[in-house]
Amino acid sequence: MNPLLWMRRSLAVSTLRRGMWDDNPIYRQILGICSTLAVTNLLLNTLVMDVGLIVATALSSATVSALRHYTPKSVRMMAQVLIIAAYVILIDLMIKAYLPDISEALGPYVGLIITNCIIMGRAEAFAAKNGPWLSFLDGLGCGIGYSAILLIIAFFRELLGFGSLFGYPVLPADMTRWTIMVMPPGAFFMLALVIWFFRAVVPTRAQ
Amino acid sequence: MRDSAVYPIVFMVLLSAVYGAAVSSVAVATKGRVAAGETARLRSHVLAAFGLEGPTDPAAIDQVWNRSIEERSDKRGRYYVARNADGKLLGYGFPFTGPGFWGPISGVLAVDPQGTRIIGLSFTKHQETPGLGGRISERWFQEQFRGKPIDVPAEGGVPLRFVYRTPGGPREVEAITGATQTSSRLDKFLNSFLVGLKDRTVLRGGGGA
What is the spatial distance between Cα A116 and Cα A112, in angstroms, rounded to a whole number? Predict the structure, then answer.
Protein backbone atom coordinates (compact mmCIF):
# COMPACT_ATOMS: atom_id res chain seq x y z
CA MET A 1 0.00 0.00 0.00
CA ASN A 2 1.13 3.54 -0.64
CA PRO A 3 2.89 4.52 2.62
CA LEU A 4 1.54 8.07 2.49
CA LEU A 5 -2.01 6.80 2.22
CA TRP A 6 -1.38 4.39 5.06
CA MET A 7 -0.12 7.16 7.31
CA ARG A 8 -3.11 9.36 6.53
CA ARG A 9 -5.46 6.54 7.22
CA SER A 10 -3.83 5.58 10.47
CA LEU A 11 -3.83 9.22 11.54
CA ALA A 12 -7.53 9.34 10.75
CA VAL A 13 -8.15 6.15 12.68
CA SER A 14 -6.19 7.30 15.70
CA THR A 15 -7.98 10.68 15.67
CA LEU A 16 -11.33 8.92 15.72
CA ARG A 17 -10.25 6.49 18.42
CA ARG A 18 -8.84 9.21 20.64
CA GLY A 19 -12.20 10.97 20.85
CA MET A 20 -14.15 7.78 21.32
CA TRP A 21 -11.87 6.06 23.81
CA ASP A 22 -8.51 7.45 24.96
CA ASP A 23 -9.71 11.03 25.53
CA ASN A 24 -13.41 10.29 25.92
CA PRO A 25 -15.17 13.62 26.67
CA ILE A 26 -17.24 12.19 29.53
CA TYR A 27 -15.08 9.87 31.57
CA ARG A 28 -11.65 11.31 30.72
CA GLN A 29 -12.29 15.02 30.23
CA ILE A 30 -15.50 15.23 32.32
CA LEU A 31 -17.12 17.58 29.79
CA GLY A 32 -20.75 17.89 28.73
CA ILE A 33 -21.99 16.70 32.13
CA CYS A 34 -25.00 19.01 32.25
CA SER A 35 -26.68 17.46 29.22
CA THR A 36 -25.60 14.01 30.39
CA LEU A 37 -27.65 14.49 33.52
CA ALA A 38 -30.57 16.18 31.81
CA VAL A 39 -31.55 13.98 28.87
CA THR A 40 -30.67 10.44 29.91
CA ASN A 41 -33.88 9.18 31.46
CA LEU A 42 -35.24 7.87 28.16
CA LEU A 43 -33.18 6.12 25.48
CA LEU A 44 -35.07 7.68 22.58
CA ASN A 45 -34.51 11.26 23.77
CA THR A 46 -30.87 10.44 24.43
CA LEU A 47 -30.42 9.05 20.94
CA VAL A 48 -31.84 12.18 19.27
CA MET A 49 -29.67 14.39 21.49
CA ASP A 50 -26.64 12.23 20.58
CA VAL A 51 -27.21 12.48 16.86
CA GLY A 52 -27.63 16.24 17.22
CA LEU A 53 -24.38 16.57 19.13
CA ILE A 54 -22.41 14.33 16.75
CA VAL A 55 -23.55 16.29 13.70
CA ALA A 56 -23.01 19.66 15.41
CA THR A 57 -19.52 18.79 16.67
CA ALA A 58 -18.29 17.26 13.41
CA LEU A 59 -19.62 20.08 11.21
CA SER A 60 -18.48 22.87 13.54
CA SER A 61 -15.00 21.41 13.84
CA ALA A 62 -14.70 21.01 10.06
CA THR A 63 -15.91 24.60 9.45
CA VAL A 64 -13.73 26.16 12.14
CA SER A 65 -10.78 24.29 10.68
CA ALA A 66 -11.54 25.29 7.09
CA LEU A 67 -11.69 28.95 8.10
CA ARG A 68 -8.73 28.82 10.48
CA HIS A 69 -6.31 30.64 8.13
CA TYR A 70 -8.82 33.42 7.44
CA THR A 71 -10.14 33.93 10.97
CA PRO A 72 -8.56 36.94 12.70
CA LYS A 73 -7.20 35.99 16.14
CA SER A 74 -9.14 38.77 17.84
CA VAL A 75 -12.56 37.42 16.82
CA ARG A 76 -11.68 33.72 16.85
CA MET A 77 -13.98 32.68 19.71
CA MET A 78 -16.80 34.86 18.46
CA ALA A 79 -16.61 33.23 15.04
CA GLN A 80 -16.59 29.76 16.63
CA VAL A 81 -19.68 30.47 18.71
CA LEU A 82 -21.47 31.82 15.65
CA ILE A 83 -20.65 28.71 13.61
CA ILE A 84 -21.64 26.33 16.40
CA ALA A 85 -24.88 28.22 17.11
CA ALA A 86 -25.87 28.19 13.45
CA TYR A 87 -25.47 24.41 13.13
CA VAL A 88 -27.28 23.72 16.38
CA ILE A 89 -30.22 25.93 15.44
CA LEU A 90 -30.42 24.17 12.07
CA ILE A 91 -30.55 20.81 13.86
CA ASP A 92 -33.16 22.12 16.29
CA LEU A 93 -35.34 23.36 13.41
CA MET A 94 -35.08 19.97 11.69
CA ILE A 95 -36.11 18.11 14.85
CA LYS A 96 -39.02 20.52 15.39
CA ALA A 97 -40.23 19.97 11.84
CA TYR A 98 -39.76 16.23 11.52
CA LEU A 99 -39.81 14.83 15.09
CA PRO A 100 -42.23 17.17 16.93
CA ASP A 101 -42.90 14.79 19.85
CA ILE A 102 -39.22 14.37 20.61
CA SER A 103 -38.65 18.10 20.21
CA GLU A 104 -41.34 18.62 22.84
CA ALA A 105 -39.73 16.10 25.20
CA LEU A 106 -36.21 17.50 24.80
CA GLY A 107 -37.44 21.04 25.46
CA PRO A 108 -34.59 23.54 25.50
CA TYR A 109 -31.81 20.95 25.58
CA VAL A 110 -31.17 20.77 21.84
CA GLY A 111 -30.64 24.53 21.74
CA LEU A 112 -28.34 24.18 24.73
CA ILE A 113 -25.97 22.02 22.66
CA ILE A 114 -24.56 25.44 21.69
CA THR A 115 -23.14 25.81 25.17
CA ASN A 116 -21.91 22.22 25.38
CA CYS A 117 -18.23 22.62 26.18
CA ILE A 118 -17.29 19.58 24.09
CA ILE A 119 -17.94 21.43 20.82
CA MET A 120 -16.13 24.61 21.82
CA GLY A 121 -13.36 22.51 23.35
CA ARG A 122 -12.78 20.56 20.16
CA ALA A 123 -12.88 23.73 18.06
CA GLU A 124 -10.22 25.36 20.24
CA ALA A 125 -8.06 22.34 21.05
CA PHE A 126 -8.09 20.56 17.72
CA ALA A 127 -9.85 22.27 14.80
CA ALA A 128 -7.91 25.53 15.18
CA LYS A 129 -4.67 23.62 14.52
CA ASN A 130 -5.58 20.77 12.14
CA GLY A 131 -7.08 20.31 8.68
CA PRO A 132 -10.83 20.13 8.00
CA TRP A 133 -10.96 16.37 7.33
CA LEU A 134 -9.11 15.42 10.52
CA SER A 135 -11.12 17.98 12.47
CA PHE A 136 -14.32 16.45 11.13
CA LEU A 137 -13.14 13.02 12.30
CA ASP A 138 -12.12 14.43 15.65
CA GLY A 139 -15.57 15.96 16.14
CA LEU A 140 -17.18 12.72 15.01
CA GLY A 141 -15.05 10.66 17.41
CA CYS A 142 -15.73 12.89 20.40
CA GLY A 143 -19.44 13.00 19.55
CA ILE A 144 -19.60 9.22 19.35
CA GLY A 145 -17.60 8.87 22.57
CA TYR A 146 -20.06 11.19 24.33
CA SER A 147 -23.06 9.41 22.80
CA ALA A 148 -21.93 5.93 23.80
CA ILE A 149 -21.64 6.92 27.46
CA LEU A 150 -25.00 8.70 27.40
CA LEU A 151 -26.67 5.64 25.90
CA ILE A 152 -25.16 3.39 28.58
CA ILE A 153 -26.49 5.72 31.30
CA ALA A 154 -29.89 6.01 29.62
CA PHE A 155 -30.10 2.22 29.21
CA PHE A 156 -29.90 1.66 32.97
CA ARG A 157 -32.02 4.67 33.88
CA GLU A 158 -34.88 3.76 31.55
CA LEU A 159 -34.66 0.04 32.35
CA LEU A 160 -34.73 0.47 36.13
CA GLY A 161 -36.84 3.64 36.27
CA PHE A 162 -39.55 2.81 33.72
CA GLY A 163 -38.98 -0.91 33.14
CA SER A 164 -38.76 -0.27 29.41
CA LEU A 165 -36.19 0.17 26.62
CA PHE A 166 -36.91 2.66 23.82
CA GLY A 167 -40.46 2.78 25.21
CA TYR A 168 -41.06 -0.98 24.94
CA PRO A 169 -41.82 -2.58 28.29
CA VAL A 170 -39.27 -5.31 29.06
CA LEU A 171 -39.58 -5.83 32.82
CA PRO A 172 -42.65 -7.44 34.43
CA ALA A 173 -45.28 -4.84 35.32
CA ASP A 174 -45.34 -5.84 38.99
CA MET A 175 -41.65 -5.14 39.48
CA THR A 176 -41.11 -2.04 41.63
CA ARG A 177 -39.76 0.82 39.53
CA TRP A 178 -36.71 2.66 40.80
CA THR A 179 -38.26 6.11 40.68
CA ILE A 180 -34.96 7.72 41.69
CA MET A 181 -33.43 6.57 38.40
CA VAL A 182 -35.86 8.81 36.52
CA MET A 183 -35.04 11.85 38.63
CA PRO A 184 -31.85 13.95 38.48
CA PRO A 185 -30.17 12.18 41.46
CA GLY A 186 -30.34 8.90 39.54
CA ALA A 187 -28.32 10.51 36.77
CA PHE A 188 -25.61 11.50 39.24
CA PHE A 189 -25.37 7.96 40.61
CA MET A 190 -25.23 6.38 37.15
CA LEU A 191 -22.72 8.93 35.87
CA ALA A 192 -20.42 8.32 38.82
CA LEU A 193 -20.65 4.55 38.38
CA VAL A 194 -19.91 4.79 34.66
CA ILE A 195 -16.92 7.09 35.17
CA TRP A 196 -15.59 4.75 37.89
CA PHE A 197 -16.13 1.72 35.67
CA PHE A 198 -14.26 3.13 32.70
CA ARG A 199 -11.43 4.68 34.68
CA ALA A 200 -10.80 1.92 37.19
CA VAL A 201 -12.13 -1.31 35.80
CA VAL A 202 -11.46 -1.04 32.07
CA PRO A 203 -7.70 -1.20 31.47
CA THR A 204 -6.21 1.78 29.64
CA ARG A 205 -4.05 1.27 26.58
CA ALA A 206 -0.36 1.44 27.42
CA GLN A 207 0.79 5.01 26.85
CA MET B 1 -5.28 43.66 4.22
CA ARG B 2 -5.44 41.01 6.96
CA ASP B 3 -3.59 43.32 9.34
CA SER B 4 -6.02 46.17 8.91
CA ALA B 5 -8.35 47.02 11.76
CA VAL B 6 -11.41 46.61 9.54
CA TYR B 7 -10.66 43.02 8.54
CA PRO B 8 -12.11 41.34 11.68
CA ILE B 9 -15.28 43.38 11.26
CA VAL B 10 -15.63 42.49 7.60
CA PHE B 11 -14.94 38.85 8.43
CA MET B 12 -17.63 38.69 11.13
CA VAL B 13 -20.18 40.52 9.00
CA LEU B 14 -19.62 38.09 6.12
CA LEU B 15 -19.73 35.04 8.39
CA SER B 16 -22.91 36.27 10.09
CA ALA B 17 -24.52 36.98 6.72
CA VAL B 18 -23.77 33.50 5.37
CA TYR B 19 -24.94 31.62 8.47
CA GLY B 20 -27.82 34.01 9.11
CA ALA B 21 -29.08 33.40 5.60
CA ALA B 22 -28.76 29.63 6.00
CA VAL B 23 -30.63 29.55 9.31
CA SER B 24 -33.42 31.88 8.15
CA SER B 25 -34.02 29.99 4.91
CA VAL B 26 -34.35 26.69 6.76
CA ALA B 27 -36.61 28.37 9.34
CA VAL B 28 -38.87 29.71 6.59
CA ALA B 29 -38.80 26.40 4.70
CA THR B 30 -39.85 24.34 7.74
CA LYS B 31 -42.36 26.86 9.12
CA GLY B 32 -45.38 25.35 7.39
CA ARG B 33 -44.45 21.86 8.48
CA VAL B 34 -43.92 22.89 12.10
CA ALA B 35 -47.25 24.72 12.19
CA ALA B 36 -49.07 21.78 10.59
CA GLY B 37 -47.52 19.42 13.13
CA GLU B 38 -48.65 21.59 16.03
CA THR B 39 -52.17 21.87 14.66
CA ALA B 40 -52.39 18.09 14.24
CA ARG B 41 -51.13 17.58 17.78
CA LEU B 42 -53.65 19.98 19.28
CA ARG B 43 -56.48 18.49 17.23
CA SER B 44 -55.68 14.94 18.32
CA HIS B 45 -55.80 16.10 21.95
CA VAL B 46 -59.18 17.80 21.45
CA LEU B 47 -60.55 14.67 19.78
CA ALA B 48 -59.16 12.53 22.61
CA ALA B 49 -60.94 14.72 25.18
CA PHE B 50 -64.25 14.12 23.39
CA GLY B 51 -63.48 10.40 23.19
CA LEU B 52 -63.34 10.59 19.37
CA GLU B 53 -59.76 9.42 19.17
CA GLY B 54 -58.36 6.78 16.88
CA PRO B 55 -56.54 8.32 13.97
CA THR B 56 -52.89 9.21 14.40
CA ASP B 57 -51.88 10.31 10.92
CA PRO B 58 -52.51 13.97 10.07
CA ALA B 59 -54.83 13.34 7.11
CA ALA B 60 -57.14 11.09 9.13
CA ILE B 61 -57.13 13.56 12.04
CA ASP B 62 -58.20 16.35 9.67
CA GLN B 63 -60.98 14.20 8.28
CA VAL B 64 -62.47 13.38 11.70
CA TRP B 65 -61.91 16.98 12.79
CA ASN B 66 -63.75 18.52 9.85
CA ARG B 67 -66.64 16.08 10.28
CA SER B 68 -67.18 16.53 13.99
CA ILE B 69 -65.59 19.65 15.43
CA GLU B 70 -66.43 23.30 15.04
CA GLU B 71 -64.25 26.05 16.53
CA ARG B 72 -65.93 29.04 18.17
CA SER B 73 -65.03 31.67 20.69
CA ASP B 74 -66.76 33.72 23.35
CA LYS B 75 -65.61 36.52 25.64
CA ARG B 76 -63.45 34.13 27.67
CA GLY B 77 -61.70 32.62 24.68
CA ARG B 78 -61.82 29.82 22.15
CA TYR B 79 -63.83 26.64 22.58
CA TYR B 80 -64.79 23.62 20.48
CA VAL B 81 -68.22 22.23 19.61
CA ALA B 82 -68.39 18.52 18.87
CA ARG B 83 -71.15 16.67 17.03
CA ASN B 84 -71.57 12.99 16.24
CA ALA B 85 -72.10 11.53 12.76
CA ASP B 86 -75.85 12.42 12.78
CA GLY B 87 -75.13 16.03 13.70
CA LYS B 88 -76.29 15.56 17.29
CA LEU B 89 -74.51 17.82 19.78
CA LEU B 90 -71.96 15.86 21.86
CA GLY B 91 -70.63 18.68 23.96
CA TYR B 92 -68.15 21.50 24.29
CA GLY B 93 -64.39 21.47 24.74
CA PHE B 94 -62.62 24.23 26.63
CA PRO B 95 -58.83 24.77 26.61
CA PHE B 96 -57.27 25.42 30.02
CA THR B 97 -53.89 26.35 31.45
CA GLY B 98 -52.81 26.30 35.07
CA PRO B 99 -49.64 26.29 37.13
CA GLY B 100 -47.95 22.91 37.53
CA PHE B 101 -44.86 22.08 39.58
CA TRP B 102 -42.20 23.00 36.99
CA GLY B 103 -44.24 25.06 34.55
CA PRO B 104 -47.72 25.59 33.14
CA ILE B 105 -49.96 22.59 32.46
CA SER B 106 -52.28 23.04 29.48
CA GLY B 107 -55.03 20.84 28.19
CA VAL B 108 -58.56 20.57 26.85
CA LEU B 109 -61.60 19.62 28.91
CA ALA B 110 -64.75 18.39 27.19
CA VAL B 111 -68.14 18.64 28.89
CA ASP B 112 -71.63 17.48 27.94
CA PRO B 113 -74.08 20.00 26.38
CA GLN B 114 -75.77 20.69 29.74
CA GLY B 115 -72.44 21.41 31.41
CA THR B 116 -73.08 18.89 34.16
CA ARG B 117 -70.55 16.18 33.47
CA ILE B 118 -67.03 15.86 32.09
CA ILE B 119 -66.81 13.95 28.82
CA GLY B 120 -63.05 13.72 29.06
CA LEU B 121 -59.82 15.62 29.36
CA SER B 122 -56.47 15.62 27.65
CA PHE B 123 -53.28 17.41 28.63
CA THR B 124 -51.59 19.08 25.69
CA LYS B 125 -48.49 20.48 27.32
CA HIS B 126 -46.66 20.22 30.63
CA GLN B 127 -43.15 20.08 32.05
CA GLU B 128 -43.75 17.82 35.06
CA THR B 129 -41.05 15.35 36.17
CA PRO B 130 -40.98 12.34 33.82
CA GLY B 131 -42.15 9.23 35.63
CA LEU B 132 -43.73 11.21 38.48
CA GLY B 133 -45.87 14.26 37.76
CA GLY B 134 -45.34 13.48 34.08
CA ARG B 135 -47.64 10.50 34.53
CA ILE B 136 -50.63 12.87 34.17
CA SER B 137 -50.11 12.22 30.43
CA GLU B 138 -50.83 8.54 30.94
CA ARG B 139 -54.11 7.17 29.78
CA TRP B 140 -55.28 5.70 33.08
CA PHE B 141 -55.00 9.09 34.76
CA GLN B 142 -56.90 11.01 32.11
CA GLU B 143 -59.57 8.29 31.72
CA GLN B 144 -60.57 8.76 35.38
CA PHE B 145 -62.15 12.12 34.55
CA ARG B 146 -64.70 10.71 32.12
CA GLY B 147 -68.26 11.12 33.43
CA LYS B 148 -67.26 13.03 36.56
CA PRO B 149 -69.69 15.75 37.79
CA ILE B 150 -68.83 19.42 37.37
CA ASP B 151 -71.19 21.02 39.91
CA VAL B 152 -70.17 21.95 43.43
CA PRO B 153 -71.53 19.32 45.86
CA ALA B 154 -74.48 20.38 48.03
CA GLU B 155 -72.48 19.96 51.22
CA GLY B 156 -69.86 22.40 49.91
CA GLY B 157 -66.30 21.83 48.77
CA VAL B 158 -65.02 21.30 45.27
CA PRO B 159 -66.33 19.30 42.28
CA LEU B 160 -63.44 16.79 42.24
CA ARG B 161 -61.45 15.29 45.09
CA PHE B 162 -57.92 13.99 44.50
CA VAL B 163 -57.22 11.04 46.82
CA TYR B 164 -54.09 8.97 47.41
CA ARG B 165 -55.87 5.59 47.54
CA THR B 166 -58.26 3.63 45.39
CA PRO B 167 -60.98 6.19 44.56
CA GLY B 168 -64.43 5.35 45.92
CA GLY B 169 -67.03 8.11 45.59
CA PRO B 170 -68.34 9.55 42.30
CA ARG B 171 -66.23 12.68 42.74
CA GLU B 172 -62.96 10.97 43.60
CA VAL B 173 -59.93 10.85 41.32
CA GLU B 174 -56.76 8.94 42.16
CA ALA B 175 -53.86 11.37 42.52
CA ILE B 176 -50.32 10.37 41.61
CA THR B 177 -48.31 9.04 44.54
CA GLY B 178 -44.88 10.65 44.64
CA ALA B 179 -46.11 13.66 42.72
CA THR B 180 -47.95 15.46 45.50
CA GLN B 181 -47.02 18.90 44.18
CA THR B 182 -48.32 18.22 40.68
CA SER B 183 -51.46 16.59 42.04
CA SER B 184 -52.33 19.36 44.49
CA ARG B 185 -51.76 22.09 41.91
CA LEU B 186 -53.94 20.18 39.45
CA ASP B 187 -56.56 19.78 42.17
CA LYS B 188 -56.59 23.53 42.76
CA PHE B 189 -56.69 24.90 39.24
CA LEU B 190 -58.84 22.16 37.67
CA ASN B 191 -61.50 22.55 40.33
CA SER B 192 -61.61 26.33 39.99
CA PHE B 193 -61.72 25.91 36.21
CA LEU B 194 -64.69 23.53 36.55
CA VAL B 195 -66.51 25.95 38.86
CA GLY B 196 -65.85 28.81 36.42
CA LEU B 197 -67.28 26.87 33.46
CA LYS B 198 -70.87 27.79 34.31
CA ASP B 199 -70.06 31.38 33.33
CA ARG B 200 -69.20 30.42 29.75
CA THR B 201 -71.93 31.86 27.52
CA VAL B 202 -72.62 28.59 25.79
CA LEU B 203 -73.28 26.72 29.07
CA ARG B 204 -75.17 29.53 30.81
CA GLY B 205 -77.99 29.33 28.29
CA GLY B 206 -78.85 25.81 29.49
CA GLY B 207 -77.11 23.93 26.74
CA GLY B 208 -78.60 25.36 23.55
CA ALA B 209 -75.95 25.87 20.89
Answer: 7
